[in-house]
């Protein structure tokens, strides 16, 4: 049995805690005038921004939990949604530099999740008694 790479564990738990803290902080700050003012600068209404945040954090949370369970497709879901999320942010935020920290963190996590050790851990396991069915 191949042991889960440490960096996969760290990345997944970071995504879990980050998603949960983002959900809690957005819930607690939903009536904050400063938060409302910042959200008012976007072309997307605040209610839609909260819906996108809820959806995005839910995908991150489920993908991270699935990755801890060695579900290979969860990495792809995280990668595809992360790219879509960055594109949405770049298209709607007035200050594009605000996207940079999150995009860099996303790139680092993807690099860790697609490293050779991670790829080996996520790759399908073959049974020891699998025989080659092709003629020699």
Order of helices and strands: HHHHHH
- Catalogue the unreliable spans: none
Shape: elongated
How big is the Rg?
19 Å
In whole angstroms, how far apart are the ends?
30 Å
Structural class: mainly alpha
Strand content: under 5%
* Number of β-strand runs: 0
Portion of residues in helices? Answer: 55-70%
Number of helices: 6
Mean pLDDT: 88
Describe the main β-sheet briefly: none
Structural account:
- The protein has 136 residues and is mostly helical.
- It is 70% helix and 0% strand.
- It contains 6 helices and no strands.
- It has helices spanning 6-28, 33-39, 46-68, 72-92, 100-113, 116-122.
- The model has no long low-confidence stretch (mean pLDDT 88).
Please give a handful of descriptors for the protein shown:
single chain, 136 residues, mainly alpha, 70% helix
In short, what is this structure?
By secondary structure, the protein is mostly helical. It has helices at 6-28, 33-39, 46-68, 72-92, 100-113, 116-122. The protein is elongated, with a radius of gyration of 19 Å.
Topology:
Blueprint (H helix, E strand, L loop, with lengths): L5 H23 L4 H7 L6 H23 L3 H21 L7 H14 L2 H7 L14
Helix pairs in contact: 1-3, 3-4, 4-5
């Amino acid at each position: 049995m191949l042991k889960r790479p440490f960096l996969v564990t760290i990345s997944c738990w970071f995504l879990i805690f980050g998603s949960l803290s983002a959900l809690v902080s957005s819930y607690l700050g939903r009536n904050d005038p400063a938060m409302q003012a910042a959200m008012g600068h976007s072309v997307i209404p605040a209610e839609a921004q909260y819906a996108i945040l809820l959806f995005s954090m839910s995908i991150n949370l489920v993908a991270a939990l699935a990755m801890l369970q060695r579900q290979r497709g969860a990495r792809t879901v995280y990668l595809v949604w992360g790219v879509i999320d960055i594109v949405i942010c770049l298209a709607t935020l007035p200050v594009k530099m605000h996207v940079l920290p999150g995009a860099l963190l996303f790139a680092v996590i993807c690099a860790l999740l697609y490293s050779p050790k991670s790829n080996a851990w996520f790759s399908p396991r073959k049974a020891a008694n699998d025989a080659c069915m092709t003629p020699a």
